[in-house]
Amino acid sequence: MTEWKNVTSVVAIDSSGFTPDSASTWYSFRTGKTRHDYLKTTISVNTTDKSLLSFHVTHSRCHDSQIAHIVLRASYRVKKSTCYVMDKAYDSDRTHQLIHEDLEFQSMTPVRDWHASCVSGKYR
User: In the predicted model, is pLDDT for residue 43 greater than 90?
Assistant: First the structure.
């Protein structure tokens, strides 16, 4: 039996998008049945015992940083973490502010570089 603790060490967050249709793009174009369905799933996982803490599904294409706060808050309600690990798609000042000020924990997120000399923001 797994004993649940109030705090875990590391939570990983990532997302993936896909079309639920199995037809190729060329077939859809040739038959005139264009594909409009798209799902994007975002999950947060406790890396210690590999348990799912929260998930979010959208029916449209959206950037990861737009739904990060939803998954972070849901994950935080289930189990608090000392560190959140995300890829650079989640690098936004809004996400860093939520983690550092509201949740009062740390994050490990690579900085997005838009080929600029510096990236601005309080947490970057």
Answer: yes
The mean pLDDT value of the chain amounts to 79
| pLDDT tens-digit map of 49-106 | 889 999 999 887 788 888 888 999 999 888 888 888 898 888 888 888 888 888 878 7
For residue 113, the 8-state DSSP code is -
Cβ contact 97:122 at 8 Å: yes
φ, ψ at 23 (rounded to 5°): -75, 145
Do 44 and 103 meet the contact criterion of CB atoms below 8 Å apart?
no
Beta strands in 1-124 (DSSP E): 7-18, 39-46, 51-58, 80-86, 106-108
Given this model, what pLDDT does residue 8 score?
74
Q: Cα dihedral sign for 22, 26, 32, 38?
A: positive
Cα four-point dihedral sign 114, 93, 67, 83: positive
- Backbone torsions φ then ψ of 104, nearest 5 degrees: 60, 45
Residue with tokens 């039996």: 1
Q: Are 79 and 53 in contact (CB under 8 A)?
A: yes
- Rounded distance between C-alpha atoms, residue 40 and residue 123, angstroms: 27
